[in-house]
Amino acid sequence: MTERIEGHGGELALAALRAYGVREMFTLSGGHVFPLYDAAHKTDFPIYDVRHEQSAVFAAEAVAKLQRRPGLAALTAGPGVTNGISGLTSAFFNASPVLVLGGRAPQFRWGSGSLQEMDHLPLVAPVTKHAETVFSADDIPRAVAAALTTALTPHRGPVFLDFPLEAIFSVGDAELPAGPQLSPLEADPDEVASAARLIAGAARPVIIAGSDVWTGDAVDELRAAAEALTVPVFTNGMGRGALPPEHPLAFAKARRVALSNADVVVVIGTPLDFRLSFGDFGEAQVVHIVDAPSQRAGHVQPAAAPAGDLRGILTALADHPGDRVDHDDWVAQLRTAEDAAKARDAEEMAAETDPIRPARIYGELRKVLARDAVTIGDGGDFVSYAGRYLEPAQPGTWLDPGPYGCLGTGMGYAMGARVTHPDRQVCVLMGDGAAGFSLMDVESLVRQKLPVVIVVGNNGIWGLEKHPMRAMYGYDVAADLQPELRYDRVVGALGGAGETVAKATELGPALQRAFDAGVPYLVNVLTDPADAYPRSSNLA
Question: In this protein, which residues make up the domain named Thiamine pyrophosphate enzyme TPP-binding (predicted)?
Answer without folding.
Answer: 378-525
